[in-house]
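User: Modeling request: complex.
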Amino acid sequence: MSSSPRSRSSQTAIFALAIGAAIIGLSLILLYFGVNVLNAGGQFVSGLYPPIAVTAEGAKIRDLYTVVFIIAVVIFLLVEGLIILSVIRYRRKPTDTELPPQIHGNNIAEFVWTIVPTILVIFMFIVSWQTLNAVDVSSPTAQTKIRAVAGQFQWQFEYLAEDGTTVLYTENIPLVSAGGGMMVPAGRTVQLQLFVSPKDVIHAFYVPQFLFKRDVVPGRTTAFDFTVDAADAGQTFRGQCAELCGVGHYTMLFEVKALTGEEFDTWLAGKVAQANATPSPAPSGAPGQSGAPGASGGPGASGGPAPSGGGETLQISAQNIAYEQSSLTTKAGAPFHIEFDNKDAGTPHNVAIHKDSTTGQEVFRGEIFPGVAIKTYDVPALDAGNYVFECTVHPSMTGTLTVQ
Amino acid sequence: MATTTLTPVATRSRSALYAWLTTTDHKKIGILYVINSFIFFFIGGLLALGVRTELAQPGLQFVTAAAYNEMFTMHATFMIFLFVIPMLAGFGNYIVPLQIGAPDMAFPRINALSFWMLPLGGILLLLSFVTGGSAAAGWTSYAPLSEDRALAATGTGQDLWIVALVLIGTSSILGAINFLVTMFKMRAPGMTLFRMPIMVWTVLVTSVLVLMATPVITSALIMLFIDRNYGGAFFDPSRGGDAILYQNIFWFYSHPAVYVMVLPAMGMVSEILPVFSRKPLFGYKAFIFATAAIGALGFSVWAHHMFTTGAVYLPFFSIMTFLIAVPTGVKMFNWVFTMWGGQIMLKTPLLFALGFLSMFLIGGINGAFSASVPVDFALHDTYWVVAHLHYVLFGGSVFGIMGGFYYWFPKMTGRMMNETVGKTQFVLMFIGFNLTFFPMHELGLLGMPRRIADYSSTAGWNDLNLLATFGGFTIAASMGLFLWNVFLSLRSGAVAGDDPWEANTLEWATTSPPPAYNFDHLPEIRSERPVFDARHGRAVVDH
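Assistant: Request completed. Predicted assembly structure:
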């Protein structure tokens, strides 16, 4: 570039051309390397958008997000454009020896950029409030009532009778992939109560595809309604605790599975019948009554009341959401016992054994029970090989078992 | 006579270090604040790199979950309480007396006391790492997790954290009183309130916020300490306490604290933009009223951090939070129209000021999403919020602090900083910042909660986390350049002279660095730009 003074407009034009050329050049380079620029750009833009909501309430929140997002983008482009334009247009040139006009302000301008944003934010407040009244509701008439019981660091789901307090069935396993999860009837309004023992800490029930979360606060019971779209029956949604609750916070996962209304009724009736058939321990207490965050036997638990027959007995203990043993060995082809010492007060654990890895076939699942307690499992004979044991409630708890 | 000549010799034999340790000069104390703050900035930055390293890939590879919780807790604690707040107080210490034409702060010894509480608090926090683990309940330390709960991994470290924060808070309160008395009692003749530079005004409003809010969090901290150690039950629901009460008291301080952390940075930007545009600040008085309005509204928005508790009156806190965007927007437009029609010189301080404008703009706009309660239900406690707060506190405060550092470094040391290294640092920091924090918006929308040590490889968060980690190390590289620039400039920077930027305010009317007690003589003060008036005469002032 020559140092000869150029007119302001030609300098600006060169600058704009350079930026434009840089953008086009970068796009061409990306294209050359096989990056679909339009596609990547589209993904980037859609990434600024929440996932498609699967509840009626979430859909309303997503609509509101659209309103706020459009206003935000317009304001950003306007102000950022002004910043960039003023820097490009008003660069100091070598010929600028005199001071520019010393303008101290303009009352009309101040008035305009006070009033217009005020109107804009009041508009955003009103549309937000309208949506709030539609999504933050809890009706006692909801047909399905479920209580999510949080605790360090697991979720339990209690299916309630119409009175909203009697527990029909308790699901101790938070993940669908582990045989549990929270089942909900798609197309029906569900009232979800949230409960945590006063002796526990704050958690938060969060399902990203609901576009909703609510804190679970010790000493308080809150509830909200949601309706999963009927069209989403059969899908599973990921959920997670969203309020820091201690060392195992990141393990506090759960899954929500949407069933059709009839499937849900059949499933729940089956679970209730099963729970009534087995001599189940006392159902978990109503809010404010029990100290521990729910205490009940899990379904499908194997293992008799007392160790029977001979065979080796392995010792496994759990404390602070971890097994105290990392690897164990036993003999192949002979039944054995596991004496499991759960030292975490109020926290349910068990021992389940999988072939090869935690995703391998489950060959044994011990009963889930809260600590502090000791139970002995009878494990059938296993073939020689490598196995892992894990806690069904806390998949981060694992150890290896070698059968030889 | 013999004895009187002996005394100075004895004094001189003491080291320069002793002089710095015992100084009551506001300029030296200001520099001590800045150095101390940068030390904790680098400690906090290392912890942030630890967090990003752990999150780069799914799986716990780098640290245990307990150590991870300690890292992000202490990262935020150091950055907020020992970097941003004291750094801005340090600049205020150095700049405010100079800008109002005062010889020193009103209470020089209290000024020294309020500084020395900070390293003490910092040492207590650092000690917690070697006394069985630091605090690990997040910088918010929500009860009952911060109570003596099982599986919270908060032992002695939590108590040390409480004591350190009470110390640092006391330091803030003493500093705020000192600033207010200095501003109201020690202004030079002619320096009326409405001729004070915007930097001074922002420190004034900040001091009022500190004075009104800090005692409140101190009460919460003391109650928490009693709960933990002396059988209190203020915040323990199992013994009749209230977990939400802690959040209300905590945020009654900690939301105004956000303005404590950003208003003086706005003040710095408001000094830099006019100088490098060769124009006065557009709407000086509007700017002051907007600052005061932010301070006042700042006390009525605390519960927007608690929308998802289901225990606050949502519409009130929603509308107040929305309204705070209005004075912030007024400032933004005033900054833009300060540049409009000017003669802009793209020196490093201005680059950082422009970085502040652009990044704080994003941080302000994505705040509107959280003000909308239903949208906040989706975004709260996810990485979206992490993105938002870093766009405000890094994109805002840190870019402002960097701009202020490059702007006032010549005044503090008498030497210019290297422009080439400075510009390179800006570009690297700007890119690194956006690579780190912009993807966090998307992570939050995809449902990644804050404060998780690990995530599933099938959640769809892998690429964005890797990108953010890459950005984090880019920021670290830019900080390496910064340190090198400071070293280079201290050793062999060009001599600055009194007024290298052709600036407006009184600190440029004295030598660089200024002598003890600051001024031999002051120019006439007839506007908010006395040094400009002295340079150009009154003729150009009124246009």
